[in-house]
Predict the structure.
Amino acid sequence: VAYRRPIDEDNDGQQDPGSGEIWVVRTDGSAPPTRLRSFIEGHLGDTFRITHDHEYVLYDFKEEGSSIRQIYAVEVGGDNPVTQLTNPLSGESSYYRMLSGDAKTVLYTTNDETDGFGDVEVYATPTSGGPSVLVSDIANDAIVLPRGVLDAQGAVVVEGNFDGGDLDLYVGALDGGDFHGVVENDFFSDTYVGASPGGTWIFYENC
């Protein structure tokens, strides 16, 4: 289990300066809690999850005096090294959306244009750190959200209104090699519900 708590170095029950700490503890109670990070400066945002391979805790963080948030991973084992996973060229914030089934890929959205709503896109990046890959390669001024990872296909289902109208459904490869529409129309919105085992079929609502 990953959890947050206020900073209290002297254990006097009073919160010390800073935005908090990230801790983990085993659910079987076989070991005491472990503190992974303490944030004296800057601002700790959401603590998203422990990856299901138990390797990392994902969270977002804003540097002191900045309004820009980025996604980080701290290792649960060893000396708890930290990796910044996102740093878009636009300088805009990155928003965690979901994790692949093997816990090796983080999907997030960010604005490709500086200082505005602009061109919102879906990216994939390794949980262990490394270059990000653009998944939704379509210029837009739109709502774009990854909704379900198709692990067997190495792909993700994306809801987007790239045409400026209602939501349609797209599938993008996690390696950025392909992005195509699977349900596109000019009436009502198509919203993702789920996928068949193996990801061959997508179930959706049109309303």
